[in-house]
Amino acid sequence: MNQAPAAAKDAHADAAVETVARQVLGNCPHHLFQWPPLANGEQWTSLDRQQAIHTNILKWATDYHVLPNTKYLSTFLRRYVRMIEEAGEELDEDLLTFHCDLMGQGAADTGDLPHDFTLKTYFLDSRVSDNYVTTMESANTISGGTTGLKTWPASLSMAEYLLTHPDLIRGKTVVELGSGVGVLGLVCARLSAARVALTDVNASVLSVLEKNVDRFRQRTTLPAAPIEIHSLDWFSVEDHEADAHLGDVLLCADTVYDPDLLPGLAHCLHTFLRAAARRNRPLAVYMATAIRRESTFHDLNDRLRKVGFAYRIILDDCPPMRFYPDEAVTQIAVLEIVPVSDGTGVGGE
Ligand SMILES: C[S@@+](CC[C@H](N)C(=O)[O-])C[C@H]1O[C@@H](n2cnc3c(N)ncnc32)[C@H](O)[C@@H]1O
């Protein structure tokens, strides 16, 4: 956090508060929430810890306009207050006031969030610091008939992979397909990409993406790459669009979820790879995906092979570890799309 935690007694207590901050501000689902152990037998219900949670998480998030929505926060606080009461501890006055204000929609500032939307904050360093990305997202899985209004776990796994391999992005022009609300792209902007182009097809997704990018531009205090947003449909993308948007790195996360979309995605990847080949320009293509059905994977491989490419698994079974996905994640893989061994890699469709 920006200021030294007022009530924290030592580094261990600081780190524990940060773990709670990361969960609360990342909207970690309540059933997956974990209170980290404290040193010297101290409890999270003590007045000292209550003050730390109020000052370093709730007040900090209010001041920085990154509070999750009222529904998420009031459930968190209800559970916390119950814990305090069950331990027979006194309730901290500031915490109580915050809770009452929230219930009455008083001073707690949750901004102008549309119904069922929340703010999620992803801290990019191992410690909580100014290096974070906040996005407005739907609190529901499918909202307005699209899956694109929330961040999917594969995006978070890919973001974590890139955070540990920043050279893949530093100084590169990055294009993302099916960006959704934009977390991955914003992480790339923070990783010193030369330029980031975020694309999607859905009008409501593009509108939320625009808001998230605006917010990022206005509020970030750290250097970040220029970000563009474009409407791009995998099925109808043409050579001139691929030429116009072509970068050094093409990313897609959780775009292999519907077998009906695979032909479009394969066409789009092929169009970009062909554009790169025409210009004799290397294009690294990374894809992160939840492995929901093996058959969809085989289908992806078949479609890629038809156009001269295959996927290579870079990381298998890599659920997000730093960020908090909104579901208990099963299997996620990060793939690289590479030319098949005959080296042509740019076959016809
Ligand atoms: C499951 S969401 C993933 C969003 C984001 N990449 C993430 O992982 O959080 C799939 C995204 O692909 C987009 N999409 C679906 N069909 C598309 C198409 N034909 N062209 C471009 N984008 C498409 C959706 O609008 C949605 O944003």
From TrEMBL:
One of the record's GO cellular component terms: protein-containing complex
Gene3D superfamilies per record: Vaccinia Virus protein VP39 (3.40.50.150)
Any Pfam family matching the protein: Methyltransf_16
UniProt-listed InterPro entries: Methyltransf_16 (IPR019410), SAM-dependent_MTases_sf (IPR029063)
PANTHER family: HEPATOCELLULAR CARCINOMA-ASSOCIATED ANTIGEN, PROTEIN-LYSINE N-METHYLTRANSFERASE EEF2KMT
Name of the protein this chain belongs to: FAM86 N-terminal domain-containing protein
Organism encoding this protein: Allomyces macrogynus (strain ATCC 38327)
